[in-house]
Amino acid sequence: MSTFKAPRGTYDLIPPASATYLAVREAIAAPLKRSGYGYIETPGFENVELFARGVGESTDIVTKEMYTLTTKGGDELALRPEGTASVLRAALEANLHKAGSLPVKLWYSGSYYRYERPQKGRYRHFSQVGAEAIGAEDPALDAELIVLAHDAYRSLGLRNFRILLNSLGDATCRPVYRAALQEFLRALDLDEDTRRRVEINPLRVLDDKREAVRAQLADAPLLRDYLCEECKAYHAEVRELITARGVDFEDDARLVRGLDYYTRTTFEFVHDGLGSQSAVGGGGRYDGLSEMIGGPALPSVGWALGVDRTVLALEAEGVELNLPAAVSVFAVPLGEEARKVLFGLVGELRTAGVATDFAYGGKGLKAAMKAANRSGARYAIVAGERDLAEDVVQLKDMDSGEQSPVPLTEVVEAVRARLA
Ligand code: HAM
User: Is 8 annotated as a binding residue?
Assistant: First the structure.
C-alpha cells in the first residue's frame, strides 16, 4: 500500500467493478442518444458566482457544500456541484439557442463535487449522467425526459424504483404560496437555524427530515392548492402524457428539491433499497435560470441521474448486468520464437475487432494459462516451437477444455467464426 489513500468521501473505480459503472453510464445515455440529445462536456470548475446565482444563495449546496478556491490570478472558482448551471452557461456562451431550432437538447456525463458528510450513497465526489432540454415550454418535453429516465432504469433491469412528481408553480403563483407557507411556519416551534430558513427559503423547510419538525408540518399549506390556472393545466398535461406512456408515478405534493432554480414540473426517482440516500436521480423545469445567469428567457427542463446510487440500486435488487468479458481471446506463447509470432497474431486479431490479450512477462505455461482463465477469455491460443514448425497454433476452448490445431493463416477467421 502507498502512504496515501483516496480522500475522505471518495472511492476509486477499479476493475472488475468499474465495468458496471461504465455500463450504467452507457445505459442512461442510450435513450438520450436515441432521442436527439447531443453530447456536451463542460469544465470541472466554474466561476463561483454561476452556482451562487443559479443553484441559489440559500441552498445547502452553495452555502455549505461547494469546493471553492481562489486561483493565483485571483479568480473565485468552484468545483461543479451539479451540471445544469454549467450546461446552460455553455449553451448561452456558444449561442446554441440562436443557432438552430429550440429546444437545444444536450446530455452529459461526468464528475461532480459536494462537501457533504459521507455515508453510504453520499460521496464528496460522485458521478452523474444528465440531460437538459433548453428553450421550450412544452409539457411533452417534460414527459419525454421523465420517460427516458424511466426507460434507462428499466433497461438496466431495475424494478423497485418510484417516480415522485410535483409542480412547484411559477413566478405568478409561487410567491403567493411562499407567503402563506411562511405565515404557517412562523407560528411553529422551530430552532434558530430553521427560523432563518423560513425567512430565506421556506419551501426547503418542508423537506426537513427531523421528526420534531416533520410532526409540526402535517397541516402545512401545499403548493398544489395554490397553483395558478396555467401551472395547473401544464401539470395536468405532463401527468396525462406520462400516464399515456404507461409510466407509473406518485404525486408528491411535498417534493421540493435542493436547488432553487426549479419551476413547475419537479420529479425525483427514488429507490427503496437504498436507505436514507434514496434519490437515485432527479430533475425538473427551470424556466427562470437563464435570466438568473444573465441570459434571455429560455424555459428549460432536465434531469441528472446519479451513477453511484444507480449502481447501489442494482446491488440492492441483486441485478447482475450482462457484461461481456474484457477479452475474448488470450494468447499464450511458449518460447521466444512463439512470443514474436503470437505477438503479431494478437495485433491481427485486434485489428479484426476481436478483443485479445497476451501473456506478458515470460510466464511458464501454467502461470500463463491461469492468466488466460482469469481474463475471462472464451479461447486461448497456445503455440510452442513444435506448433510453429507445422505453421499451426492450438486453439483452446476455455469452457470445454477442447483444443485443436488451426493453421496460422486461418486463426483470425476461425476465431471470428466461433465467436459469431
Ligand atoms: P440533484 O438531485 O442534486 O440534481 O442530483 C441528482 C442525483 O445526483 C441525485 O439523485 C443523486 O443520485 C446524485 N447525487 C447528488 N449528490 C450526491 C452525492 N453527494 N453522492 C452521490 N450521489 C449524489 C441535480 O444535480 C440537478 N442538476 C438535476 C437537474 C438537471 N435538474 C435539472 N436538470
Answer: no
